[in-house]
From TrEMBL:
Coiled coil: none
Membrane topology per record: Single-pass membrane protein
Protein name: Metalloprotease
Residue spans crossing the bilayer: none
Length: 211
């Protein structure tokens, strides 16, 4: 993602529970700036999209943590990212973002955040109840992440490789073997992201009705 103005993750507090010995390795400032910008931008994107369908958007609170985080949905562990519907909050593990950034690029890290926003979208649209299998809910969140990538790309916020980075991240997040209660296979997750990129918001709604 192209460097953007410095913004602070709204409402963010460090909720890591581990004791740091010495100073913790910081999320590289550049990546941090991009992630914080994306956090604001993704929410604004969904705010616009919701306005377009006549629904109110309530911004989730995003927390970043280094070790583990206590949430109303249980403990969020290392290399994890979750959306908790009990307090409408997103928790992202900083080492997970750093790893994605290292392995696939900055927009891979942003795609992790965008996926969690996808769950916030599902919750607010009442879509979560319409999935028969967990896998459909997860693929829909991947699809919504793709929709954001498409929009950010149109607004010229992205580098030429960013969409591919999101695709790679979705692929790497998948599992090798299919199980209806998993998050989907590598291929399914990458395709879901791509579906969002190419077909937009409404195409992602199909995951709520697929059987
Ligand atoms: Zn998910």
């Amino acid at each position: 993602m192209i460097s953007a103005p410095r913004q602070v993750l709204q409402g963010a507090v460090a909720v890591g529970l581990a004791l740091f010995l010495g100073s913790p390795p910081a999320l590289s400032q550049t990546l941090q700036r991009k992630v914080h910008f994306a956090n604001t931008d993704i929410s604004r994107f969904w705010s616009r999209t919701f306005r377009g369908i006549g629904r109110p958007w309530r911004k989730p609170i995003a927390y970043e943590y280094r070790s583990i985080a206590k949430t109303p949905c249980g403990i969020a562990g290392k290399f994890n990212a979750i959306y908790c519907l009990h307090n409408h909050s997103i928790y992202v593990n900083v080492p997970l973002l750093e790893q994605a950034n290292y392995q696939a690029g900055d927009f891979a890290a942003i795609t992790i955040l965008a996926h969690e926003y996808g769950h916030a979208v599902q919750n607010q649209l009442g879509l979560s109840r319409l999935h028969r299998y967990l896998v459909q809910e997860e693929l829909q969140a991947d699809c919504f992440a793709g929709v954001y990538a498409q929009d950010a790309n149109r607004r010229r916020l992205l580098d030429p490789t960013d969409v591919q980075e999101g695709y790679t991240q979705s692929y790497m997040s998948g599992q090798n073997n299919f199980h209806p209660n998993s998050h989907g296979t590598r291929r399914q997750r990458a395709r879901a992201f791509y579906r969002g990129v190419t077909h937009g918001f409404r195409a992602c709604l199909a995951y709520s009705f697929l059987r």
